[in-house]
Specification:
heterodimer; A: alpha+beta; five-stranded antiparallel sheet; B: 126 residues; alpha/beta; Transcription Regulator spoIIAA; 3 helices; 6 strands; 37% helix; globular
Chain lengths: 185, 126
């Protein structure tokens, strides 16, 4: 199998990668990732406005993995993780890039992609209204998600959600979501 | 009725609901994976308070971070307060935000536009 989830990244070893994690995404892992990234931002005296946005987006990204990942394919080499995810945080010129990755069952791709496309074609004002609508009308799902995570990320960053699906086998793809959190233009 | 006093953790806020004073406070970080588990007792408590509220209830929300899962639960808290207000009791919400935190201010404005209770937006200047 030539598939390697790290092929997506060209410069993972570079000094600008402040966090790299792959494996089970449980509550403790989420705490550790949040603490580690927050400490690193504080250590470089990142301005509090950007720091808060990064923290917020990271919370939603991690909890999206926690609530929504599909189980790993049967032939994947790490079978220990119930909620397998990948998280990378990189420092870039005017902010941070957060990349998450997870397996998505083929039958769930269309729905996810449609959701992202809808967000990406909306104006900032429309995203704000969409957020309020979902907040006020949608119940928390059985999985525990509120359906607001991606909308909130788009709203707080003001940037488009970059994404791709890399086919793993007939039944699964690996979904990469890349979010730029930067200082306001 | 017994007050609710909950110490904050890295992921859940400090809560003080004092029924004798009519002052309710939620403060800190609210980013648990399972927010319903945390907020349900608060919402249930408000249901009881609602039956015999004080003539004035003041609610102070002073959050540093909250996740989208908490945002729905916070709305449930506000809906209980709205019902108390609707029954001709005074209810006032003070929504605190740090001076450069426009996202937190906007979040307060979202609730203000949904819930029919007077909101006061209060900037925390350090």
């Amino acid at each position: 199998m030539s598939f390697n989830i790290e092929n997506y990244f060209t410069d993972l070893s570079a000094a600008n990668t402040i966090l790299y994690y792959k494996g089970n995404v449980d509550s403790d892992v989420i705490n550790q990732v949040l603490d580690s990234v927050e400490d690193k931002m504080v250590a470089v005296s990142e301005q509090s406005k950007l720091r808060k946005k990064v923290y917020n987006v990271l919370v939603e990204s991690l909890q999206n993995l926690y609530h929504h990942v599909d189980k790993v394919p049967e032939d994947f080499d790490d079978q220990t993780a119930e909620k397998y995810g990948l998280v990378v945080v990189k420092k870039v010129n005017d902010g941070y890039r957060i990349v998450t990755g997870n397996f998505v069952h083929s039958e769930n791709i269309e729905k996810l992609e449609e959701k992202i496309k809808r967000i990406n074609r909306s104006s900032h004002e429309e995203i704000k209204e969409l957020y309020k609508f979902i907040l006020n009308h949608q119940r928390i799902s059985a999985k525990g998600g509120g359906g607001l995570g991606l909308v909130d990320i788009a709203r707080k960053t003001g940037n488009k959600l970059e994404y791709s699906f890399k086919s793993y086998n007939r039944y699964y793809s690996f979904f990469y979501l890349e979010i730029l959190v930067n200082e306001e233009k | 009725m017994e007050p609710i006093i909950i110490e904050g953790t890295a992921k859940t806020p400090t809560v003080k609901f004092d029924s004798a004073e009519g002052v309710f406070e939620i403060k800190g970080r609210s980013i648990p994976e399972n927010s319903v588990e945390f907020y349900k007792p608060l919402v249930d408590w408000l249901d009881t308070y609602r039956e015999m509220p004080l003539s004035k209830t003041v609610v102070n929300i002073r959050l540093e971070y909250f996740n989208t899962s908490s945002s729905k639960c916070i709305l449930d808290v506000f809906k209980k307060l709205e019902a108390i207000h609707k029954a001709k009791n005074e209810v006032e919400v003070n929504w605190y935000y740090e001076e450069d935190d426009e996202d937190m201010l906007e979040a307060g404005e979202d609730y203000e536009s949904i819930i029919r209770v007077p909101f006061k937006m209060i900037e925390i200047v350090e």
